[in-house]
Amino acid sequence: MKIAMLGSGFIGRFYADSLQGYRSKDKIVSVYSRREESARKFAEDYHCAHWTTDLEASIAHPDVEIVCISLPNHKHEEAVLLCCKHKKAVMTTKPLGRNGAEAKRMLEAVENAGIFNGYLEDLVYTPKFLKAHESVKNGALGRILWAKSRETHPGPHSDWFWDLEQAGGGCILDLGCHCVEIARTYIGKDIKPIEVMCWADTQVKPIEAEDHAIGLVKYENGAIGQFEVSWTFRGGLDLRDEVMGTEGTIWTNSFLRTGFDMFTTGKGADYIAEKAETNSGWLFPVGDELNELGYNHMFMDMFNSLEAGRAPKETFYDGYVVNCILDAAYRSAKSKQWEPVLLDVWRGREGVTSQSHLLSYDADHYLVKEEMTHYGAKKIILKHKETGKITEKVLSE
Amino acid sequence: MKIAMLGSGFIGRFYADSLQGYRSKDKIVSVYSRREESARKFAEDYHCAHWTTDLEASIAHPDVEIVCISLPNHKHEEAVLLCCKHKKAVMTTKPLGRNGAEAKRMLEAVENAGIFNGYLEDLVYTPKFLKAHESVKNGALGRILWAKSRETHPGPHSDWFWDLEQAGGGCILDLGCHCVEIARTYIGKDIKPIEVMCWADTQVKPIEAEDHAIGLVKYENGAIGQFEVSWTFRGGLDLRDEVMGTEGTIWTNSFLRTGFDMFTTGKGADYIAEKAETNSGWLFPVGDELNELGYNHMFMDMFNSLEAGRAPKETFYDGYVVNCILDAAYRSAKSKQWEPVLLDVWRGREGVTSQSHLLSYDADHYLVKEEMTHYGAKKIILKHKETGKITEKVLSE
Amino acid sequence: MKIAMLGSGFIGRFYADSLQGYRSKDKIVSVYSRREESARKFAEDYHCAHWTTDLEASIAHPDVEIVCISLPNHKHEEAVLLCCKHKKAVMTTKPLGRNGAEAKRMLEAVENAGIFNGYLEDLVYTPKFLKAHESVKNGALGRILWAKSRETHPGPHSDWFWDLEQAGGGCILDLGCHCVEIARTYIGKDIKPIEVMCWADTQVKPIEAEDHAIGLVKYENGAIGQFEVSWTFRGGLDLRDEVMGTEGTIWTNSFLRTGFDMFTTGKGADYIAEKAETNSGWLFPVGDELNELGYNHMFMDMFNSLEAGRAPKETFYDGYVVNCILDAAYRSAKSKQWEPVLLDVWRGREGVTSQSHLLSYDADHYLVKEEMTHYGAKKIILKHKETGKITEKVLSE
Amino acid sequence: MKIAMLGSGFIGRFYADSLQGYRSKDKIVSVYSRREESARKFAEDYHCAHWTTDLEASIAHPDVEIVCISLPNHKHEEAVLLCCKHKKAVMTTKPLGRNGAEAKRMLEAVENAGIFNGYLEDLVYTPKFLKAHESVKNGALGRILWAKSRETHPGPHSDWFWDLEQAGGGCILDLGCHCVEIARTYIGKDIKPIEVMCWADTQVKPIEAEDHAIGLVKYENGAIGQFEVSWTFRGGLDLRDEVMGTEGTIWTNSFLRTGFDMFTTGKGADYIAEKAETNSGWLFPVGDELNELGYNHMFMDMFNSLEAGRAPKETFYDGYVVNCILDAAYRSAKSKQWEPVLLDVWRGREGVTSQSHLLSYDADHYLVKEEMTHYGAKKIILKHKETGKITEKVLSE
Questions:
Q1: Alpha carbon of B201 to those of A16, A146, B162, B333: distances in Å?
Q2: Does A273 score more than 70 pLDDT?
């Protein structure tokens, strides 16, 4: 696959490492950056034939088969529209837009243009997520009740993130977009998100946007998604998910506790551990960051899908749904009440209520709980179906 | 110390194991239970001289120096009033009342009677909490921004918990009382809790009360307490806290991951692992449950305080504040908006605002972030104090 | 219990914290130290009525009921003999002697004198060990095949440890004594240790004694004990055990990973984490060090046993066996071959061979292994009882 | 790259998943199996154009550029010699031979034939190992003192492993080959392994070969490699490494604790967790097994090296050294003493002694240890350079 990379910053380089490293047949053939020196440096580092400071020139370049947008948030729409104009397949870094309206315009544009569109939500492509999601789909956890995703770290790497106008939001938009899609995928992408409650504050940083937020997303079937995001966390990159069902639970830690512990006095060498806040003491490196963060499996899905003529797992439509959920979160943070998710376009199921899942113990009773006592006897707690009376009885073994 | 134990159920036995096991000079001299057989069995097991089914008889027993209330929630008030009548020191299991009004009546009663009153919130006495709290007080985490406590398990052991009238609530009251006091202690017990947002639902169990809830408690200084509670969790007793400050973070796990892993095929023996849902496969026992859950250090504080004539760390006043916070949580779960914490009695500080903590980089700029780049250079992101403009610069080494 | 504490150094203070902190009725009434200022300081800190620089004066003090020896290794024998002379109950820190001969003299002395004798091997009294050992005894792991104990840290606190004459050895004697008794207890204290193979070296420190060693202890029933000890480990105190049986395994970590993680920039305060090598970055504190290291349960067993007129779980006899095993380790490190454990006194079972535990699958075959294949089918690997031929067959489901 | 796969069993399929999955341009064009049905089934599953039960036919097939040997141990040599005859590049699964003599013949054959030769030791290619090894090379741990690798599980999947003649050995050969190369790589592949001490026993299985072994490998510079291997472990696949240096330590866990925890009642579905012994309770899946076990990075190195005309990181020479070390282990298990590693061919450094690394504190003293006391004071322990006397002094702050 021949790729145009738009943007040469932190995330562009991360993508490039994965794009050129994983499937050995993919190649970045053009790179665009606002700044000439950045474009040239990137082209050198990744051996790109063409570099430019003209956005359209990169997209329109005849060799380019797919465009990878790694630009600041406020530049996504312009780039997407140019891809539509030139009928180039496009994939865009997260979040899709700064808000639902912007996302919707991009969604409609690519669908009207009939071009391939991929939404680069890497964290639903991590090896752990893929395997965990498979277990969830197979029913190992029963009916899903709650899914939480937490992403916190000491703040992003580039200046534009901290500027409300360019970024469109703070850590809710930057990190919450990951968390929302993770929880939504566990709960079921065909289940409608109904309303959001969110707290957000600027607790530490000298910025307009929020640097810490916690939100709850209620789905039509009664399941709850939860996100915890912050740019004020100290200790590295905290990336943990939990999902809870009627038959089990899954906990994943993608970064700080992955079975790799290192202690170093720091005396031995200049070695600096990646993303860690310190380079001495106990450190927790990740073996293969690109793979652990999902980049490899994400681009594989994008390219395989494009080659097979089908939509990838994550499309602009997913990006749009995420933006609409985050919009509700921002509204809730201000109104201090649950806010509805306003989805003009909904392609999933409707009317999925939280079904009754009561377990009958006998003709007259529901089973509340069954357990072993301290003394090895079996105890059951029952509720009478009509009177509602709760009783317990200890079974002789 | 000579103790009357009111209640002979699960928690009464847990307390008794700690009370008589830890300080070898303490003794339960009387036990009360509603049911004669339970009272007699408990008296036998713990070698109590006196047992009775008459509540007042136990409290009034001449040998009794302190009364330990381990009764269902709806029986606390009656027992407390009898302690007041007989001027006996009293300590009560959590929660103090079923709501703030009940708690306030108990608080006023013991204070008017002038008797020693202890609130048995064991989870702020666990060895891990005590050490972690010490670090927090010493400033190792800087200014506290957020404190979360999670307690979830597959549901309580006795029938009355599942009956809304007797219990006064579901998992919010049963488990949230722990979580709220943990977060409140990390944030500072003199900082006023202002308002609460809470989601609650009955997702699984055939009961009136909530079996799953998540809540946020906002404090006057801008810090946030969070509780996650459930009676629907599968996998054992999940007891985890996290606290995050401007200079660090602490994570504690008190039950499921404490450095003790066991795999057993279950073939070898009838061994049943405590509180685990299974007795084969990977199990995570706790070394010394009474100590890890804080019972030992809690009773030591109670008795040492009583002997020294001072208030213990946790008094009825703390129980009252917790009940008021939980009342707001219940209101919020219904109103779907933030609800104020109604505290008729407030003994902490007032008017503690979230101070400005902006860090100046130079005369004209605030420091947003300082970090090491991939290439080992130091990068700083600044905000102009007047224009608000965000810029970044890379420092030569 | 009224105690004389001999020695006022690091371990003496640790013991005193536990002795006076746990059972509130025990009291150190006399303290001996070589140096007047140390004795006086200790007496002040722990409110001891009597202090002295005369060893016998402390032991003979009329108030003293039991003597706690916390002296350097080369001073144990002298102190023990004085306890015998004055018929005082005695408990001695580990190792009992510098070698088996010294240990045997002490063993015979206390037994001839008929005094209570306890061996202060705290690490078989940790809450985790007690619970794990209970599971092992209950058969949860089946027949025990291997038990390993690892204790490594950056080196001991007092000067005499580093002096071969006073200490009698390096990390094998200092740390290996713990590890050997842990493995021996898991395998069975009535099973005879037969021979030892040990590697030892002085890899880092400018000392005569070994600073790193690994040893294997073979027991009569074929089980293997393993110790890994070092004074050169960087990263804190590493205290991990593993035990493996035919039906399961147990892993315990008593210090560095116990469900308590803290990150701190170190900016916030002068806080210094206990025993950690640093006071910033990721730290792993222990909640209640005295309890986690077994001191509380050890002294409880000592005093309860003394009061009940029975031998404690760990006596001088155990210390003697440990010393004999370590003697063989030292011989092996020199001879570079397995060395027999020379036990003049053996009170356990004899002739316990490693029994045959072959599992018959049918009349003609032993079962080698049974497993699930990738494809969900059940596969069994068999060995013919006569021909010895190995075959596999896949069972239809 | 066009590949002939020799062998269609467990490991052949694992390799094939990685070979065809990772670099999208590589393809298995021919497969050989002893049994027709296996060859045909494999060819179908992996879309191979050619299958055969004639070993030479597969190797000689004109499309084949490189041969991948995934045969039982006793078939390696024959296959290698055929590759030499047909001048085909070859890579062989581990261990290279059943012993050093066999390995040496293969080594000489490929070198005389001048063909590319790769040794498929995947565990030095795991993402964690690669990153950890990089830190070690950068000096983050200082001088390496000890490196341990542990691989234990409930026994291999195919019948031939259990047959001493075909396999050439038990778990030492099967698993020890991994462990030895891991430790050797951490310590330095140019450092000569000198001698080995090994314990081995058949504790559980009805076989001739050992099912449990522990060994120490001494290197010329004084560093120690350690292996712990077993086919009797219960609990899954235990794959842990530790490396210890003068300035730090690294612990990796590649399988059972990688930040992915799942609890399931097993009620929800037929889901079977990979390689776990159970399918309910707490399970510890691995996200991306092929990547975590090093297959992807291993084959990438093989193909990139072949394309670039250079030797891969692991060649037949490494396989030969490993075999010679394991030979010494087998001899030691019988002789019960340290046995020399007999290396006819040694290509690393000679005469690397364990240098003196004593740290001077001042003109007269070596520094033994520096530490913080309980009371925050700094204490140093010194050794006089001439007298050898050990002293301690507390520094005023």
A1: 45, 11, 14, 8
A2: no
Residue type, C188: G
DSSP symbols for A120-164: E-GGGSSHHHHHHHHHHHTTTT-SEEEEEEEEE-S--SSGGGG-H
Nearest beta carbon to residue A291 from set D24, D135, D288: D288
On whether the CB atoms of residues D11 and D93 are closer than 8 A, the answer is yes
Per-residue exposure over D21-35, b if at least 16 CB sit within 10 Å of its own CB, e if not: ebbbebbbbbbbbee
Radius of gyration of chain D (CA): 24
Q: What is the Cα–Cα distance from C385 to A227, expressed in whole angstroms?
A: 60
d(CA C179, CA C215): 10
User: Coil, strand or helix: which one is C114?
Assistant: coil
In the chain, the amino acid numbered A282 is W
Inform me whether the pLDDT recorded for D271 exceeds 60: no
Radius of gyration for chain C, computed over Cα atoms and rounded to the nearest angstrom: 24
Q: In the prediction, which pLDDT does C273 show?
A: 47
Counting as contact any 3 or more CB pairs under 8 A, the partners of B are: A, C, D
pLDDT, tens only, B63-122? 999 999 999 999 999 999 999 999 999 999 999 999 999 999 999 999 999 999 999 999
DSSP per residue over C92-110, as a string?
EESSSSSSHHHHHHHHHHH
Res B210 pLDDT > 70: yes
pLDDT digits (tens, 9 = 90+) for A118-168: 999 999 999 999 999 999 999 999 999 999 999 999 998 888 888 888 999
Instruction: List Cβ neighbours of B226 (8 Å cut-off, separation of 6 or more).
Output: A214, B146, B147, B148, B149, B179, B183, B214, B215, B216, B217
CB atoms under 10 Å from CB of A32, counted, come to 29
Q: Pick the residue from chain B with its C-alpha nearest to A217.
A: B199
Provide, as residue numbers in chain A, all residues whose Cβ is less than 8 Å from the Cβ of D247.
Answer: 264-268
What is the CB neighbour count within 10 angstroms for residue D160?
17
The helix or strand, by DSSP H or E, that contains position A5, with its residue range, turns out to be strand A2-6
User: Inter-chain contact C283–A280, Cβ cutoff 8 Å?
Assistant: no
Phi/psi-derived region of residue A114, left when phi > 0, alpha when psi is between -120 and 50, beta in every other case: left
Give the integer Cα–Cα distance in Å for A15 and C9.
Answer: 58
Mean pLDDT of D34-61: 96
Give the rounded distance of the alpha carbon of D315 from its chain centre: 13
Query: DSSP E strands: which ranges in D46-129?
Result: 50-52, 66-69, 89-93, 117-120
User: Which pLDDT score is estimated for B373?
Assistant: 66
Question: Please, are residues B50 and B29 in contact by the beta-carbon 8 Å criterion?
Answer: yes
Over range D69-90, report the average pLDDT: 98
For residue range C14-25, list pLDDT tens digits in order: 999 998 876 667
Partners of chain D (3+ Cβ pairs below 8 A): A, B, C
C128, two tokens = 């985790």
- b/e burial code for range A108-143 (CB count within 10 A of at least 16 → b): ebbeebebbbbbbbbbbbbbbbbbbbebbeebbbbb
Provide the percentage of residues in chain C whose pLDDT is more than 70: 94
| A234 interfacial to chain B (CB closer than 8 Å) | yes
- Residue ranges, chain C, pLDDT below 70: 22-24, 268-277, 355-357, 372-376, 396-397
Instruction: Dig out the tokens for A202 from the structure.
Output: 């600027």
* DSSP at D385: T
Q: What is the mean pLDDT of residues B187-202?
A: 97
Q: Model pTM?
A: 0.93
pLDDT of residue B397: 47
Structure tokens at C318: 């155990």
Segments in B7-74 forming alpha helices (H): 10-21, 36-45, 55-60
CA dist., res. D263 & res. A140, Å (int): 9
Query: Which tens digit of pLDDT belongs to each residue from D187-238?
Result: 999 999 999 999 999 999 988 899 999 999 999 999 999 999 999 999 999 9
